[in-house]
Amino acid sequence: MALTVVSQIFPREMIPAVLPLIEDKLQHSKEIIRRKAVLALYKFHLIAPNQVQHIHIKFRKALCDRDVGVMAASLHIYFRMIKENSSGYKDLTGSFVTILKQVVGGKLPVDFNYHSVPAPWLQIQLLRILGLLGKDDQRTSELMYDVLDESLRRAELNHNVTYAILFECVHTVYSIYPKSELLEKAAKCIGRFVLSPKINLKYLGLKALTYVIQQDPTLALQHQMTIIECLDHPDPIIKRETLELLYRITNAQNITVIVQKMLEYLQQSKEEYIIVNLVGKIAELAEKYAPDNAWFIQTMNAVFSVGGDVMHPDIPNNFLRLLAEGFDDETENQQLRLYAVQSYLTLLDAENVFYPQKFLQVMSWVLGEYSYLLDEETPEEVITKLYKLLMNDSVSSETKAWLLAAVTKLTPQAHSSNIVERLIQEFTISLDTCMRQHAFELKHLRENVELMKSLLPVDKSCEDMVVDASLSFLDGFVAEELSQGAAPYKPHHQRQEEKLSQEKVLNFEPYGLSFSSSGFTGRQSPAGISLGSDISGNSAETGLKETNSLKLEGIKKLWGKEGYLPKKEGKTGDETEVPPVPQESIIMENVDQTIIKKDQSQVLTQSKEEKEKQLLASSLFVGLGTESTINLLGKADTVSHKFRRKSKVKETKSGETTSAQNMPCSYFSSSSDVTYEDDYYLDTLQDRGDKELNKFSLNSELLDSESLTELPSVEKLSSCTLSTPSLFTDDMEGLHSPSSTAASVANEISLASSLLEETSEHMHSDLVEVCNNETISVSSYKIWKDDCLLVVWSVSNKSGLELKSADLEISSAENFKITEQPGCCLPVIETESIKTFQYSVQMEKPFTEGNLFGFINYQMMDTHSVQLEFSVNLSLLDFIRPLKISTENFGKLWLSFANDVKQNVKMSESQAALPSALKTLQQKLRLHVVEIIGNEGLLACQLLPSVPCLLHFRVHGDVLALWFRSSCSTLPDYLLYQCQKVVEGS
Amino acid sequence: MIKFFLMVNKQGQTRLSKYYEHVEINKRTLLETEVIRSCLSRSNEQCSFIEFKDFKLIYRQYAALFIVVGVNDTENEMAIYEFIHNFVEVLDEYFSRVIMFNLDKVHIILDEMVLNGCIVETNRARILAPLLILDKMSES
């Protein structure tokens, strides 16, 4: 009984105390006790897998227990462990197969039978495990073919539970490495399911079909008619399952029909979850396979009107991006946009129809951007329509903001503008501050037509406005203020800091040391101010914040404009208004009442300038908002769904596929014989020595002793690790002594090894062969120099012939700047010699992974020229270098960076202490440790050429709290990922 | 993975509920009513599996009693469907027809059969063994 309780509710902290007791129980003579003990261990495994790691051997014993119940209980643990890591348990496949064979063969006691089927749930569990084990693994899969075949054969009885087993069988057959006979049988089973009159079986069949169809679409053809029947089935669940199936087989030809069916279902269904789900799928399909513009727009219209406000915000955003960025073909873009505008106008014409807010937002954006494409309707008419919507009470204020933005965009194109004036009157007295703000902006803009036109260009939605987010133009004012005796502005955290230090003697805040030591005595850096004004914006304009964050992409340009606008006004010197100096200080005071002492006169002006203050505050905030919006967009670009027809965003995909090709290239070519291998080793060794010499002359700046320890850990290309050079050479000599060239070779070896020892202080990767044929082999390795990445290709001529006009070329890649180092072109490669080519690579824009392609051309004595292609994989990590800065500078930098990412990472047991965690980070990611304070640490690194990234981390038990900041938006995310990998992986 | 196990009567009252995944108490009632409503609305000809939000419901009706099991989508629906029947058979054997007044014992039985969302025992004799020992102890 106690064991049952243990396996149900149990706190993680108590495991160590109870564990030995339970381990004892594993040997108990009663099988029920043993079973319960295993189950209790399973619970432990669930809540704290690392605490039971040491008793895995006991699980194995449980698996081989003579009692079936105990064995069955241990299966749960194995299922879980195999799911996490299938490769570690391949050796158990045989046992599982034997067990299943026994079960299927009816070797179990009779009381395990359920309706004369032997232990059906046990079978299902076993089948699942086998499915996991055999996935993509031919050898393991082969072991199970027999038993699967038998299961399929045995489960012929007409009972529900046998169908369950069959279903699981089919599932397994299709997950493991395929075998045609089994597939055939499984397909037959599915056929039986689908055709069955029993509704539950039909459902099961459809589900199986959905799974199978991804591997074998032809099966769907066989069951065409049944699928169609199911589509019109009275049971909505069956219908839905069928749609799911169709979704998997959608292609450019059948898209219209399938989406049609989906929309029909959508219109009937009421449940929110289903709508959200289905709408997402339709939108995805429509983007992928849309046959023509009209259809696409209409489908999206339907999606928006049905999906309404519950759908995922990505959908309208993606749609708008598609419209804005367009395809390769410009005329098609225009047509698409024109069609969208027209269809929206007709929709808006309809009386008494209510559209969801999101749909209205999409409409207003499209109309605002692309109404100029219309011939017959003037902007005035469009504005009139928007105005009507604005006056509608059912429209939310967020949507109104969108609408007003559209009107603002259209105003410069309109000639007469009575409506706009009316609109301004209407909304400058609006209760909603946000709307009032917009209206004022519009009003000011209208007073200066030239500015307006330059700010609201036609069809430029994709081009980001340049906004001075750091507000550098305010520097002058600030300096002036300072000279007048005003206290310098201090950012929020520092103020807190000071407050705290006044209150307490001891300060436990995370940045206590770094911040107070950095001491903000001088003028605050511009970015600091914008950070502070962000806070002021937050407090003053929470309403604004809401709309801003919600708008994301669609409105981005608008915000840019608005952020820009008031500043412009300030610059051009609107004479009637007081210059913005005091406003700025008022904002400071607003956020910083505890510290800043104001001049009396400025306090007097405060009431007068209430409105300007608001305007400025929001504009400051808006400027910042724009920046962050752009960042968000940048991120979305890399992760979100790519449109099929768009050419812009292909680079990542192509990179992935080629890196896969790289894999099979191993260090040795399997065909070559031993002596060749020897030769090759020697060649590469010597070649390496050469290279190191070169490098010495090139790179006089030696890395410090830290890098020495890093050397072994940075071996990313691990196909063949050379242990220590001396050991290696010993080996070689042993191998090579009988060969004829022993003497000369020995010389070379000693030379090479001495060189190697000398130069191993540099960080470099191992030599990896990238391509070869019978006469030539090309290897490459990376040298992580301080200022760039050096990729070295060495070409060795293995044949006894001279190679003429050998030429290595590296094709230019999108993300890299490649510079050739001297001595790259060789007219002749002599017999059995090695030549090296060096290229320094610089990253032009951050990316996570990319490939460098190149080829080598050479000519043999008598034959025509041969070309060999190769590629090298480069990751962002190759461009990360330690950044050596002081704690003080760290504090300063930390404040100036806007992009930050926080995450908690669980550490593996082996490194649950700060020093070891630090060491791993330092070694594997090449981070520089700035300072360690108690259980916190500061690290810094830079992305070449000079993008810094800072990391603060703190250890709580086995959890590592990471906090990255950088001026580049993608860098923290990437580094976080790498850190996670390092910390969790080892 | 089994997420929850419900026994409900036709009037929509919950007789027994057991969760294998944390759900807040006040959300449970809401979830239960929704689940029951969707089960009751279905006829005999319709299939016993319902896709409900991000998981699946499998239900079986025994006279006035509904047993509903919520599972995640990796679970084999038919296996659960038969498991419900297995559970009812066990109850049948132990209680000999009068079921609903010994809920504590039903809980014990269920705990023997399902643990942490996994089916751990289906052998009738073994499920009932601890319960019978308990009974014997209380008698003596």
Order of neighbouring strands in the sheet with most strands of chain B: 2-1-5-4-3
Mean pLDDT of chain B: 83
Model regions low in confidence, pLDDT < 50 over at least 5 residues of chain A: 460-469, 504-611, 613-761
Average predicted confidence as pLDDT of chain A: 64
SS-based class of chain A: alpha+beta
Topology-level CATH name of chain B: Beta-Lactamase
Pfam family, one (chain B): Clat_adaptor_s
Family (chain B): Belongs to the adaptor complexes small subunit family.
Protein name (chain B): AP complex subunit sigma
InterPro entries (chain B): AP_complex_ssu, AP_mu_sigma_su, Longin-like_dom_sf
Explained architecture:
The complex is a heterodimer of chains A (986) and B (140). Chain A is built from 42 helices and 17 strands. Chain A has 986 residues and is of the alpha+beta class. In chain A, the strands form four sheets. In chain A, strands 12, 13, 14, 15, 16 and 17 form a six-stranded antiparallel sheet that branches. Chain A has a five-stranded antiparallel sheet with strand order 3-4-5-9-7. Chain A has a four-stranded antiparallel sheet with strand order 8-6-10-11. Chain A is globular. Helix content of chain A is 57%, strand content 12%. Among the domains of chain A are: 763-877, Immunoglobulin-like (Sandwich); 880-985, TATA-Binding Protein. Chain A starts with a helix and ends with a helix. Helix content of chain B is 44%, strand content 26%. Chain B is an alpha+beta fold and 140 residues long. Chain B has four helices and seven strands; from the N terminus they run ββαβββααββα. Chain B has a single domain, classed as 2-Layer Sandwich (Beta-Lactamase), CATH 3.30.450. In chain B, the strands form two sheets. Chain B has a five-stranded antiparallel sheet with strand order 2-1-5-4-3, with helices on both faces. A two-stranded antiparallel sheet of chain B has the order 6-7. The interface between A and B is large, with 45 and 34 residues.
